Amino acid sequence: EQVFSTACEHTVPQQSADIWHFPCHQCNSLLANKNFKNAIWWPMLKDEKFIYINHHYRDLILAELYAKSIGLKEIITTSDAKNTPCICYAQGVLQGKYSDFFVFTGLVEAMVQEIDCLSIGKGMQNFRYPPA
């Protein structure tokens, strides 16, 4: 991936066509910074390992703001969030455990659409049911 300095000059020194183009002075100095090199040396954690990150390094304010913005705050702040049936079902759907249960997933999808339509005051005209 590309890395840019926050003070990037957005210019590239003039070079001839057969020579490599190097980043600006600010971006180049970032790549030479020892602390930055040490930080990017460590491999990224796999998604399933993020739960083991030390609480000291977690940005709780940012996580709460993100949860509020996408409407997940209630799920996160419940006392037993890991064992609620809704969370277990959502994790199963994301893992593909329910891909063979067409009738069940179609029913859940239809119920969610119905509740969404009724909550914004729309009727059920032209409601499309999933194939069974």
Name the descriptors.
132 residues, 46% helix, mainly alpha, 6 helices
Structural overview:
The chain has 132 residues and is mostly helical. It is built from 6 helices and no strands. The chain has helices at residues 25-32, 34-41, 60-70, 73-77, 85-95, 102-119.
What structural class do helix, strand and pairing data support? mainly alpha
Q: Looking at the structure, what is the overall shape?
A: elongated
Let me know the largest β-sheet. none
Number of strands: 0
Report the C-alpha radius of gyration, rounded.
Answer: 24 Å
Strand content: under 5%
Give the count of helical stretches. 6
Low-confidence stretches: none
Distance, first to last CA: 43 Å
**What's the rounded overall pLDDT mean?**
78
Following the backbone from N to C, one meets helices and strands in this order, namely: HHHHHH
Q: How much helicity do the residues have?
A: 40-55%
Topology:
Layout: H1 25-32, H2 34-41, H3 60-70, H4 73-77, H5 85-95, H6 102-119
Outline of the structure:
The chain is mainly alpha-helical and 132 residues long. Helix content is 46%, strand content 0%. The longest helix is centred in the C-terminal third of the chain and has 18 residues, at 102-119.
